[in-house]
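Minutes, project check-in

Agenda point 3 was the complex the collaborators sent over. CS summarized: two entities, 230 residues total, and the question is how they sit relative to each other. Sequences were read into the notes so everyone works from the same version.
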Amino acid sequence: QQQVKQSPQSLIVQKGGISIINCAYENTAFDYFPWYQQFPGKGPALLIAIRPDVSEKKEGRFTISFNKSAKQFSLHIMDSQPGDSATYFCAALASTGGGNKLTFGTGTQLKVEL
Amino acid sequence: NAGVTQTPKFQVLKTGQSMTLQCAQDMNHNSMYWYRQDPGMGLRLIYYSASEGTTDKGEVPNGYNVSRLNKREFSLRLESAAPSQTSVYFCASSESMTGRHTGELFFGEGSRLTVL
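CS then shared the predicted structure for the full assembly.
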């Protein structure tokens, strides 16, 4: 049972464009939503995270948009660069009663072309 | 600052062989995890250890065992490897599993295992 659904599976964006990756969840107990970035041959690393008390969080070119009523959240990468080419995972966690274990989406392979 | 260190990085096994993946963290974290990553499946939790002395099953524990040797080390054992266990395995750690500071996992660089 996939508790966090992520799309698209792969994405090609031109340099300078906007990359958008979407995730949806069912468990209303989730209260922490991080995005992880993974480069080839490396482990995932935390990129940016949001809690449901805000609708948007921005860090540099990376923005998370959160829609609590729709149970959806998305990652926007503005002015995408070739160095952003990586696999991106959304995740969700229920900090109380959920065992505090992250549930990951299936990943999006982003390629930014020149 | 090493962070999370996994060994070996690559391993080829024959069906039925056993092996242990080693993991150590130097961040004084309480919680440690083993994930497997497969194409189109994302990261799936195999086992975790909320604190030294405790271990619990994750989403896909069958065919694996773990040992939390001490606060720093958490090993994953395959007793009788099967081709379905061909995967990339990641160890991770976090400060704790309680409260609102549980979010960030720190991952190792992975162990690529092939079972023939």
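Noted in discussion: The two ends of chain A are 38 Å apart (CA to CA).
Follow-up: revisit at the next meeting once the mutant set is ready.
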